[in-house]
Amino acid sequence: MYNKSIIALAVTACISLAGCKTTEQSTIAAANEFSPVVETTTHQGPETITLKQAMAHPDWLGRQPERAFWSFDSKSVNYARKQAGNELRDTYTRMLEKQGNGDLVSLDKLHTLGAKQLTFSQDNKWVAYTFKGNIFAVEQATGKLKQLTLSDDNASQLLFLTSGELAYRVNNNFYKINVETGLRSQIAALKVADKPEGVKEPTSYIAKEQHKLIDYVALTHKNKQDKHAYNESLKTQNESVMNDTYYLGKGNRIVSAVVSPAGDKLITVITKSSPWRDDGDIMPNYIGQNGEIVAEKVRRRVADTMPSGSELVMIDLTENTQTTLPFDTLPGFDEDVLASVKAENAKAQGETYKSEKAPRHINLMMDWGWSQNAIQWNSDGSQVAVMLEAFDNKDRWIATVDFASNKLVSQHRLHDKAWVNYTYNNFGWLNQQPDTLYYLSEESGYSHIYTKALTGKAQQLTSGQFVVSELTQARNSQSIFYKANKKHPGIYEIYKLDLTTGESVAQTDLNGMTDYQLSPDESKLLLTHSKLALPPELYVTNVDGDTVTRLTNTVSDKFLNTQLVAPKIVAVPSSHTEQPIYAKVYYPRDYKEGETGKARKAVIFNHGAGYLQNSHLGWSGYFREFMFHSFLAEQGYVVMDMDYRASKGYGRDWRTAIYRHMGKPEIEDLADGVKWMTENANVNDQRVGTYGGSYGGFMTFMALLTRPELFQAGAALRPVSDWAYYNNPYTSNILNHPDVDPIAYKRSSPIYFAEGLEKPLLINAPMIDDNVFFQDVVRLVQRFIELEKENYETAIYPVEPHGFKQPSSWLDEYRRIYKLFEQNL
């Protein structure tokens, strides 16, 4: 699948700690000198990294820009920056024509900056946004700012209607406001209750006789009937009185609701209301604020999760009607997609499974990475598309609505025998072609852009062995901007797709990790860019331009003066796939390529999340681990950080390799990593250890328990020991549900392999972890005790959640890890 020449590739990035240097090298640290970005070599500071410094509060790095967004006039950029010594954020504005890091914005001016999410009127006269739940509108020609609401209502879902009015949502009520006059009116009110009935006629014998015998009772009843009839007539005949309440049923919960730009229809999705946890889903906090043991509420486990489905309801705001749109027109809506899995599990229990068709539980698609809604109207409100997913995670549909017959029309079905990806689900309608959809799909094996006219066939507009994400459709041209790793799996650049020609043009060439935002006037891109050894900074470039200008320089002098070993990205040949396993390798400073002296010790780090990419050429979220690996390299270790199978960024097959058997393909990849280091980095395969947190902790367990010959020691941090105890959204994708597929859980959970522990194991466990429960460690430790295992230690962290907060906890944890390796490797 990959060219063999790539397998031998070792990519060295632009890894200066000061970033890609400016054309004036002497001014690299000067905050006021920001020139176009060019490549450079590794920066060498005079200070060697220490373990204590590596685990210190990240303020020492310099407090990088966060949550950046354009001003509505496209002339400046706004961003948040952490205050030194506390968790508060200040807001800065950086004018494009000025220099430096920008100006601090006073609290009384924050509402004037605009927001990341802007809404434009269809005539482009107004742009609207929210600040702290209040609505603001800017007249683009004059720059005049109008505040349209002042309340604690918390408005959301701003949308300019075709009438020119601005629609918005407050809780489950929809309103529209005339931007010119300020007149507000209600569009619809949604209530999760049964529709109130009129004045009921007596039904029992006693009641009927009461009405016959007592004139006062009968008269009172008639008066109530007359009043009800009058009010109903008033609401239908007088436009100044609202007739807009829609009842969606008692016991339901509104998942999503979106009004049409035409203001005449509303699509909502409802599901049965159910608690997100049970009474027994608690986590003891032994060091609470009041000195008592606090029973913290936590989510339920995948093993306790019951199947659930939704209903799609169309509300006609003109006719005051509501109609449920059934899912039976979706292809595969009643398929038994897990028949083979159920049959395998039944056979293992000495039973026979008979497959039968039955309607599946279907819900609105809940993508884990997007900011848009899974209900999308086209620009004139004549059509709507919804993205739906099956509860069993095997299908995703995009469907439109036939308003004449009140039926869903399937436009695209993405079926995956493993699981449909919970990212890469951007979709919508083309602005210039309101009858054509665009969407991302992994059907080719990689996430790519497709378009489909309502009456035509789908057209694939990007292709290749790379991943497309983060689509932004231009309003004023037939273009879609996107992010992709075309050049190398670990390099992400920004591209512009011309929908007329189908050609894509690179907008950046920065060779690292780059995210973007299109400016409101669509002439510029705001870039958040980082290198292997450079934390994220802000840059700007013109659309289709060739000059990139750096806007911020927030890296601290202390960080610039610290000597760190920057890794190389290598492609490790795989024994099990045609694709190589990309990995970061940190070499000792005295390492010489091709050396044959005394073989070195080594460590393999396992990143968390499973579906996450860490061997890219940008700044890693694992920055403490990056510095720890540099520290280890200074001590003579070779360190490898692998994007094992299941990692993000390498396509569908790489992602789903762990389906129904977590902990096997990944450990096979680690074995290839050990082999590569012995053959290419002068490593002694009997002096290799491993460690990782969360999913990486789970991998450490599986490596030591199922392949004890592979590593001489391992550290498992905040680790999963039994997948039946983890959450439903993540786990059920990969292992199905425990009641359906117990085989997958038993062969994927370390607790079932506790007998295999032979080598020294360190378990570090935070006690108030509401992600991977402390219970995971407790249960496995009890198994080790009952098995009379001796070569393990457990360190607990009483005040820490899944992601540690206190530098002292980080330091204690990594001192123990270092000690483990020093004693056993």
What does this structure look like?
This protein is of the alpha+beta class and 825 residues long. The chain is built from 14 helices and 47 strands. It has a 9-stranded mixed beta sheet, sandwiched between helices. Strands 11-12-13-14-15 form a 5-stranded mixed beta sheet, with no helix packed on it. Strand 29 and strand 30 (459-460) form a beta hairpin. Helix 3 (205-213) crosses helix 4 (215-237). The longest helix is centred in the N-terminal third of the chain and has 23 residues, at 215-237. The chain is globular. It starts with a helix and ends with a helix. 40% of the residues are buried. The model is unreliable at 1-43 (pLDDT under 50).
Measured by DSSP, the beta-strand proportion falls in 25-35%
Helix-strand category: alpha+beta
Tally the beta strands. 47
Shape: globular
Mean pLDDT: 92
What's this model, at a glance?
The chain is α+β, with helices and mostly antiparallel strands and 825 residues long. The protein has 14 helices and 47 strands.
